[in-house]
Amino acid sequence: MNSLIVVSILALVVLYLGLFKAKNALLPVSVLGLVAALVLAVCEWNSGAAPIFSGMMHFDNFAVAFTSLTVVSTILILLLSKQYFEKISENVAEYYTIILFALAGIIIMVSYHNLSMLFVGLEIMSVSLYILAGIKKRDFASNEASLKYFLMGAFSTGFLLFGIALLYGASHSFDLSVIAKYVTDHPEGLNPIFYAGIVLIMVGMCFKVGAAPFHFWVPDVYEGSPTLITTFMATVVKTAGFAAFLRLFSICFAPLSDFWMPTLLAITIITLFIGNITALFQDNFKRMLTYSSVSHAGYMLFAIVALGATSSNAIFVYTAAYSLASIIAFAVLILVKEQTGSENFDSFNGLGKKNPFLALVVTVSMLSFAGIPLTAGFIGKFFMFSSALQEYHIWLVVLAIINAIISIFYYFRVIVAMYFKDAERKELVSNGYFKLVLGASAIITVVLGVYPSLITDLF
Amino acid sequence: MNLLILLFFPLVGSIAVLLNRNYAKQTALISSIITLGFAVSMLCNFEADASKQFVVDLAWMPQFGISFKAGIDGISMLMVLLTTVLTPLIILSGFNRTFKHTSALFALILFMQSALLVVFTALDAFLFYVGWEAALIPIYFICAIWGGADRIKVTYKFFIYTFAGSLFMLLGIIYLHLQTPGNTYDLQAFYALNLDSSTQAWLFWCFFAAFAVKIPIFPFHTWQPDTYTESPTIGTMLLGGIMLKMGIYGLVRWLIPVLPLGFAEWKELALILCIIGVVYGSIIAFTQKDIKRLIAYSSIAHVGLIAAGVFTWNLQGLQGAMIQMLNHGINVIGLFFVADIIINRLNTREIALMGGIAKIAPKLSITFLIVVLGAVALPLTNGFIGEFLLLNGVFQFNIWAAAIAGLTIIFSAVYLLRMYKNVMQGTLNELTGSFKDIHGSELVVLGVVCALIIVIGVYPQPILHISEAAVNGLIGEVNSKLAF
């Protein structure tokens, strides 16, 4: 709760810093503010017993965990932004401000206890992202990304809002606990419009997390946006989307899983296959990552399909692993693109020789994406498979295994390019912040892979 | 705690190798010899009964029933010996080769050793799986960085095959875990499960996929000849000498005791696949012109017989499999090392271009002969006792199976001796005229290999004794469930 206030005020402070041309203060102030928000969030661990603000928000452990995760990812991304934003635009303060506003929306999304707050949080985040996607004003792809994102996003918000309205019509409340009580009080059958509401909300949420067949905006938006913004979308935004999705379904709709589960199961399977098979045919590394992010959304949906006691844990571990790996991959992509001007797999050729450190961290990230043991990604996949098997979705896991095998092809393409293909290239230069973020992310990935109890004990 | 030192010392060694780049080979060798010392000291304190000894049990992820639990019984002891004896030989075999990025190569080998030891001692299914996959990463990089021209495609295939197999095993492991009363990954809890036979029947294939790819059993073998040929010899030795034993060990320790009813349902089919592999590998080995490929196919045949012995699930078959795993490791390292020496000096793998080497390289010719005789299972060499017990086991199971599998001895005598003849005897030609005999580290490696072949061949009893009680215990456990 306090962290939400800190982040909101921080965003305004940063905006004023921009006004007074205090460019050098932007990064330190943002990072320090976020660290403060992180500390405040962690302090609320185990203290949020009841909903606050007339039942609008509930800062329970779930909210604390996901707030911390999104804040940490944002800190890592902001550390990478040193010198990055200056190259794109003159009004650097805007970036920091809008990212922080988006983060404020995200904190609301992971801690809402009322559907109106879900909507408010989602909109704060989305509107900020529409701007961020199009922030390269003179860049055609960036404009396209922004417009596409806006149209699709507005569309999906419509679905979500209509769904919320229908739920209200049936249960006469926006409050999550009232809706949950409504569901349990009517075991014999609910008002049909309630079911319609669930479906619409599900469609709206699937749009936001980029699950197929509602994923068509993802590739273009991810590719067109500045890479660092893409990183933010792929990590923080995706984490928040899944946290909000899971929160709603586990609190309110768990008893109705017979109704929505088959639909979501179908969505999961389609997402896995579309994401993986399309990623297989990409020559562009960034586009490969965007399609792989679609397929990872499929794995994350496992936790909701097989809703149970371990679901929040599974999503938390998976999103943490995925965020770290994505930050590494996108950060190195920024460096590679700066030097070669290309985002293709070929531009990674020979990196292993010239930049052993960068090649090593990318390898860790790819192994984590692929779910190889001793990396955090494996623990994430392991939890997802466990939760699916707990509900006896054996065929789902078999399909997921097939997808995991397919994904080896494109993740290993990067490793093959870096180590086994030679190319004339110069050493990449990266500043200290990059080394810090990359090194820290890789080490955390391996540490979580070896000793996951650090974060699996949370829930 | 003793066991933890054994498991993780190679990791320490691997870091030491990276820090000590100028003496990478020497550091790696010292590290692996110290590990061997640990293993031998454990062997001295080892009681050859069926119990698990030196058990370590540390909390890892207690809320999910995962613990770091490892221990050694007779079966594991043999595998630990296999790993710790062969690794120094493999490292030593690289001594007078030059590699690019030497320190990385030897660090990866030691890392792999650690993972292999974890696999062979794990008493927790999760730990087993982690070790199983962790062993795959270093060998992938060893083959892909230091391999031949076609290595990228070949290693892709290798990785995908093995990774696919192990993911199905992961599915099986998680499924079994969810069936255990306390939701644990403990091996004993898996043994205590009493699932119905239809569940066990499909779970059997989940595990079988992983193990059959590693061993490899026909028809899961197609990655193997290419990978063996394209890998650097040091990688081939790791693959053929130690890594494929992971699969056989998995059959003995996990698949059959955990899923006895599944095993009972499919054992004939599995045994037939193994025997097909024996015959198929032998026939293809006949026609090979490439020395490394010939040995690769012969390995399919030999390993098929070991797996067949396991599937008979009687004392002779299993004991034969145990000792033959050790023997096959020793022999295959000898064969591949000799092949590597010859290929390296002649710059060709074509058997037809070789000949007459025995005349100018007497030391090589004697050691090579001993290794070949061990591989063709001549009495008084190590291969004989293993194959004798294996065939004895298969014979008790089915006479016809034994008759067909017995062909392996004749077949292997034919193609291996023919290979020896074509390579070593005959007349010298331009290429082989200036062949230098083995010396230094090469001589040490082949000397040790030959000594092991003869010592085990003459007096195998101590080795059989190590695993006998544990094997008997496992057989009894499974048979009591089958009778039930």
3D structure, described in words:
Chain A: Its EC number is 7.1.1.-. The complex is a heterodimer of chains A (459) and B (484). With 459 residues, chain A is an all-alpha fold. Chain A is 78% helix and 0% strand. Chain B folds into 2 domains: 1-173 and 219-244, no CATH class; 265-484, no CATH class. In chain B, helix 7 crosses helix 10. Chains A and B meet through helix 17 and helix 18 of A and strand 1, helix 5, helix 6 and helix 7 of B.
Question: In short, what is this structure?
Answer:
Chain A is an all-alpha fold and 459 residues long. Chain A contains 20 helices and no strands. The relative contact order of chain A is 0.09.
List keywords for this structure.
heterodimer, A: 459 residues, mainly alpha, B: mainly alpha, two-stranded antiparallel ribbon, 3% strand
Overall structural domain count of chain A: 1
Helical proportion of chain B? over 70%
Mass-distribution shape of chain B: globular
Task: Work out the count of structural domains of chain B.
Answer: 2
Outline the biggest β-sheet of chain B.
2 strands, antiparallel
Lateral arrangement of strands in the main beta sheet of chain B = 1-2
Q: From the alpha-carbon coordinates, what is the Rg of chain A to the nearest angstrom?
A: 21 Å
Q: Give the count of helical stretches of chain B.
A: 20
Q: Please give the alpha-carbon distance between the first and last residues of chain A.
A: 19 Å
From the spread of the alpha carbons, the general shape of chain A counts as globular
The low-confidence runs of chain A, each spanning 5 or more residues with pLDDT under 50, are none
> What is the strand content of chain B?
under 5%
Termini Cα gap of chain B: 38 Å
Number of strands of chain B: 2
GO molecular function, one term (chain A): NADH dehydrogenase (quinone) (non-electrogenic) activity
Transmembrane segments (chain A): 62-80, 92-112, 118-135, 147-168, 193-216, 228-247, 259-281, 288-309, 315-336, 357-380, 392-412, 433-454
Family (chain A): Belongs to the complex I subunit 2 family.
Keywords (chain A): Cell membrane, Membrane, NAD, Quinone, Translocase, Transmembrane, Transmembrane helix, Transport
